[in-house]
Amino acid sequence: MGQQFDTKDEVFKPEIKKVPDFKFGSSVANVFDDMVNRSVPFYGEMQRMIAEQAADLATENSCIYDLGCSTGTTMIGMNTMVDESVTFVGIDDSLPMLDKCREKLDEAGITRPVRMEVADLNQCVNIQNASVVVLCLTLQFVRPIYREKLIRTVYEGLNKGGALILIEKILAEESSFNREFIKYYYNYKRRNSYSELEISQKREALENVLIPYKLSENISLLRDIGFNHCEVFFKWYNFAGITAIKK
Predict the structure, then answer these.
(1) Is 15 left (phi over 0), alpha (psi -120 to 50) or beta?
(2) Mean pLDDT over residues 216-241, rounded?
(3) Of 1.10.287.1080, 1.20.1050.10, 3.40.50.150, 3.40.630.10, which CATH number belongs to 26-245?
(4) What span, in angstroms and rounded, lies between the C-alpha atoms of 135 and 99?
(5) Is the pLDDT assigned to residue 1 strictly greater than 60?
(6) At residue 5, does pLDDT exceed 70?
(7) Domain ranges within the chain, ordered by starting residue
(8) How far apart (Å, rounded) are the C-alpha atoms in residues 154 and 157?
(9) What is the pTM of this model?
(10) What's the confidence (pLDDT) of residue 6?
(11) Max Cα distance, the chain (Å)
């Protein structure tokens, strides 16, 4: 079962006559930590894996960018493991998410330099002096037409030897597996006390918002941009993590 949080995710619990597209507004920001832990298998382990890799890959006086930083869980996880000279830069297009992020960073007592920026990753984002860039369940929400531009911006903003840590929801390589993997995934959500109505309504809300690629398509995108060193570090049915190094 997922970790318990004070504010329980009940966004899709009431029946909604016409389900709108999913947005990271205040109603989601207030319950996001519970939502993501009950909706993403091994989310806590993903965060630990990001942090320990970042600790090895970050260089002194550089920056770590968390693109789509949401409520700041990734930065908090990295904080005790990454050299204190490293500046954290959290970027998100949702003001409610950034407000919750600032609140959590303050509660965690983080004293290192931290910058918070509002930016739409479908548009221009500025990345400089980066030793690590994290895209944790974020690229899937960027419109496919803009993904190559974003990854190129990341690549160009990384220092030599820098790394992109990417975690995504994915499609199966063989389409015949997709149905089964989705079934197993919804079973996971059921085990974490989501009702059939909640699962159905959230699926409908995400249908035109979260667009997953195959794992091979994500790796091809990275390699085409210039990341010649890519490795899968996590895989669970329709979720995967990739580390890509700029040599």
Answers:
(1) beta
(2) 98
(3) 3.40.50.150
(4) 19
(5) no
(6) no
(7) 26-245
(8) 5
(9) 0.95
(10) 58
(11) 53
